[in-house]
């Protein structure tokens, strides 16, 4: 997955979650501490979202941050991520792993559905 596609998909998820929570862009932007224009650009994939912004948006939408990340995300090498300067190699790798791990529901036993074991 290329980075542009990643940001577009994250933006689509944010937009859909915002609308399902009946929030206007300016309301969510105010809760997160960014401008409405920035949120609009994030939602259409024009503006890259920082990890702390993704987490703040998830909190404002009452979602785990992983719900805003596409499920079919292919591993992205830490060297190709648009990360802030000054991160330690371990921090870069942790962020890359976070973005590359399968979603929590994919990690559960596939024989378990809705909390009940299939027979």
What is the topological layout?
Blueprint: H1 3-20, H2 25-32, H3 36-43, H4 51-60, H5 89-100, H6 104-107, E1 112-113, E2 116-117
Antiparallel strand pairs: 1-2
Helix pairs in contact: 2-3, 2-4
Tally of separate domains = 1
CA distance, first residue to last residue:
37 Å
The CATH H-level superfamily is lambda repressor-like DNA-binding domains
Mean pLDDT: 80
Low-confidence stretches: 106-119
Shape label = globular
Radius of gyration: 16 Å
Architecture overview:
50% of the residues lie in helices and 3% in strands. The chain has a single domain (3-107), classed as 434 Repressor (Amino-terminal Domain) (Orthogonal Bundle). It is mostly helical and 119 residues long. The protein has helices at residues 3-20, 25-32, 36-43, 51-60, 89-100, 104-107, and strands spanning 112-113, 116-117. It has a two-stranded antiparallel sheet. It starts with a helix and ends with a strand. Residues 106-119 have low confidence and may be disordered.
């Amino acid at each position: 997955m290329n980075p542009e596609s990643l940001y577009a998909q994250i933006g689509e998820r944010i937009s859909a979650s915002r609308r399902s929570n009946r929030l206007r862009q300016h309301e969510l932007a105010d809760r997160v501490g960014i401008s409405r224009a920035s949120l609009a650009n994030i939602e259409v994939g024009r503006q890259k979202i920082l990890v702390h912004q993704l987490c703040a948006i998830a909190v404002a939408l009452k979602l785990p941050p992983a719900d805003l990340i596409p499920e079919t995300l292919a591993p992205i090498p830490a060297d190709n991520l648009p990360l802030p300067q000054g991160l330690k190699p371990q921090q870069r790798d942790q962020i890359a792993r976070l973005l590359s791990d399968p979603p929590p529901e994919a990690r559960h036993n596939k024989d378990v559905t809705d909390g009940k074991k299939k027979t």
